[in-house]
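--- STAGE predict ---
source: upstream dedup step, 1 unique chain passed
mode: sequence only
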Amino acid sequence: EAGGEPGCMVPIRVHDCRMQRISGWVAAAVIVTIVFGTVYLTLQQIGRRAVNDAPVAALAAQIQQLDADPATGPRLELTKDSGTFLIVYGDDNKPVFTTVTLHGEVPDLPAGVLDTARTAGTDAVTWQPEPDLRMAVVARHAARRVVVAGQSLTPFENSDRWTQLILATGWVIS
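--- STAGE serialize ---
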């Protein structure tokens, strides 16, 4: 090619041709990053919202039994490995029934969650009762009470790390 370099779009100086190639690579890298970022955010949100499924099911079952005497049984200690738990709060935001404790005491859910459930009908939040202990919590107002169900986010967060690793590897290979 007269006056140009192989691969250049038009016959121009060598420096301009290299800039054209670099610009093309940068544009491709930006597009690939946006695609992988969008895939990660989508998978992360789907997974995080799915963590609410078990608490919502437990919540629905407990609401159906609100008028019955709550069954007493062993209480689950709130840990990173905790399964689904329930807490029923009365009008005064004091626990009426619970299946869970934190260091032997009924844990205090933020009053804002209970207030939102009373005014909006429901609230779903990530609750961190202490450092390194995160819970997916769903609260629903029913029969002048607020029924709260939740479970640990640790299993989801562990699988989310794998998702990050797989997508980061794909991004690097692209």
